[in-house]
């Protein structure tokens, strides 16, 4: 059933949305901070690797890349298209808190990740692939949070996005206002 089917419960609609999102997204909104706390937000093309990590190819000249290399932490945001919803303030959004590490060019996973990024992002990726300052970064989710609408919040298992649970601050119950 579709993620917006009225025959589904709120949790089932949320689950259907994140399961579909897992295969559809092409970019992530990337939140980083410097070691002294200076924030940055950016957009990066991304793939989801078999191990559940996001992999991005980013310029070493970019502020967010310096933050990733210095702190080894990031936040990944996937958000519903505001053009596809009646109420943009209630867009579904999925956030993961991640650890970050570089994947060396000679590592076994480098070439397959580059191929997967090219397949997902198209020929424009070829321009970036040959730029020497770019680095492949693995963002490994540690915990996830889904806001499925006004007051409808779930913790998301970073290894299995279909596993949703009410966050502890709601006393074990999903809250819907």
CATH architecture: Roll
In CATH terms, the superfamily is Electron Transport, Fmn-binding Protein, Chain A
Text of the CATH class: Mainly Beta
Q: Terminal Cα separation, in Å? A: 24 Å
How many extended strands? Answer: 8
- The amount of helix comes to 10-25%
The backbone outline, from C-alpha atoms, is globular
Structural class of the secondary elements?
alpha+beta
Regions with pLDDT < 50 over 5+ consecutive residues? none
* H/E element sequence: HEEEHEEHHEEE
Beta-strand percent range: 35-45%
Domain count: the total is 1
Biggest sheet layout: 6 strands, antiparallel, barrel
How many DSSP helices? 4
Mean pLDDT: 89
How large is the radius of gyration?
A: 17 Å
The strand line-up of the biggest sheet is 1-2-3-6-5-4
The CATH topology annotation reads as Pnp Oxidase, Chain A
Q: What do these coordinates show?
A:
With 177 residues, this protein is of the alpha+beta class. The chain has one domain: Electron Transport, Fmn-binding Protein, Chain A (Pnp Oxidase, Chain A, Roll). It is 24% helix and 39% strand. The chain has a six-stranded antiparallel beta barrel. The chain is globular. The relative contact order is 0.18. The mean pLDDT is 89.
Give short descriptive properties of this protein.
Pnp Oxidase, Chain A, single chain, 4 helices, 8 strands, alpha+beta, 177 residues
């Amino acid at each position: 059933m579709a993620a917006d089917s009225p025959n589904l419960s709120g949790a089932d609609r949320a689950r259907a949305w994140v399961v579909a999102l897992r295969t559809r997204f092409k970019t992530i909104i990337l939140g980083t901070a410097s070691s002294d706390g200076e924030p940055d937000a950016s957009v990066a093309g991304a793939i989801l690797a078999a191990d559940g990590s996001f992999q991005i190819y980013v310029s070493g000249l970019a502020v967010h890349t310096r933050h990733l290399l210095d702190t080894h932490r990031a936040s990944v945001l996937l958000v519903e298209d505001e053009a596809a919803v009646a109420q943009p303030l209630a867009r579904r959004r999925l956030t993961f808190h991640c650890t970050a590490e570089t994947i060396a060019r000679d590592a076994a996973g480098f070439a397959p990740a580059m191929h997967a990024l090219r397949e997902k992002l198209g020929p424009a990726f070829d321009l970036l692939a040959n730029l020497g300052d770019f680095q492949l970064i693995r963002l490994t989710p540690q915990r996830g949070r889904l806001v499925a609408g006004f007051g409808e919040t779930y913790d998301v298992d970073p290894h299995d996005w279909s596993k949703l649970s009410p966050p502890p601050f709601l006393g074990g119950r999903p809250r819907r206002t």
